[in-house]
Each structure stands twice: as structure tokens, then as C-alpha cells.
């Protein structure tokens, strides 16, 4: 992360699928202008890709899965790669914010639970949260 003047804003990870777009847009709208991070959106076709307005240091990556791909697979891989770099196991940092939708994919739900242990979750901020109860 490039240094800048003043206290750096939060590092954010927002991730979801096409069904989560409204929640993602609502979350993005609450981010401070100095936020830094990544938004991942997994969709079934390139026709679903559209611009999302974000703070200038928050980047959006659209993950378009093929017809034979299992929903959530691309998103989970992206989230795992991002968190391996930015949220290593064993380190908690309340300047990091994580929200992961795509609750229909059990692997994503399990990953989100692990992220909550190392970040300030969207729930702690009063933001919408995917229902992942009962998913292992």
C-alpha cells in the first residue's frame, strides 16, 4: 500500500455475486474517500458487468465464470488470495473491513467466518450482512 499524508483510511475487501450488487453499492457508498482495497464481483456472464463508483484507491474486479463453473468458486479463490496478502492468519486489525456476500456458496460462507475473526466486520459497522448461519 502506498503511503500518503495523514492516517491511512481503512483497508477494505468487499466481495459478492450478481445478487449482492445492491448491497455492494450500499457498502461502497459508505466508504471514506481514503479507503484502500478491493471489490470482487462474480457474475455468470459478461453482460452483467457494469461500472461501480468507488473511492479512487478501491478497485473493482469482475469475475466472469464459465457456463460449467460452480458459482462462488472464482470469488472464493479471489478472496483467499487477497486475504493471504492483506489479512494474514493470526493478525487482527480493526482498520480492515471485510464483507462477503454470495452466501449460497458454502465455501464462501466458511471463509467469511474466518475473516470476521481478523477484521472489523460490516456487522460491527452497522452495515448489511449476508446470512451465513448454519453453513460450514
Automatic annotation (TrEMBL):
InterPro entries: FNR_nucleotide-bd, SIP_rossman_dom. It comes from the Bacteria. Pfam families: SIP. Residues 11-122 form the SIP-like Rossmann fold domain. This is SIP-like Rossmann fold domain-containing protein. The lineage of its organism: Bacteria, Bacillati, Actinomycetota, Actinomycetes, Micrococcales.
Amino acid at each position: 500500500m502506498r503511503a500518503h499524508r495523514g492516517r491511512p483510511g481503512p483497508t477494505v475487501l468487499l466481495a459478492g455475486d450478481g445478487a449482492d450488487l445492491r448491497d455492494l453499492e450500499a457498502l461502497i457508498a459508505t466508504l471514506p474517500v481514503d479507503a484502500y482495497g478491493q471489490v470482487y464481483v462474480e457474475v455468470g456472464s459478461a453482460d452483467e458487468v457494469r461500472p461501480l463508483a468507488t473511492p479512487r484507491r478501491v478497485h473493482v474486479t469482475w469475475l466472469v465464470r464459465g457456463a460449467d463453473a460452480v458459482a462462488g468458486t472464482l470469488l472464493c479463490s479471489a478472496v483467499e488470495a487477497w486475504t493471504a496478502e492483506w489479512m494474514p492468519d493470526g493478525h487482527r486489525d480493526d482498520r480492515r473491513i471485510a464483507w462477503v456476500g454470495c452466501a449460497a456458496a458454502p465455501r464462501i460462507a466458511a471463509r467469511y467466518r474466518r475473516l470476521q475473526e481478523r477484521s472489523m466486520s460490516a456487522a460491527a459497522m452497522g452495515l448489511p450482512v449476508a446470512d451465513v448461519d448454519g453453513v460450514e
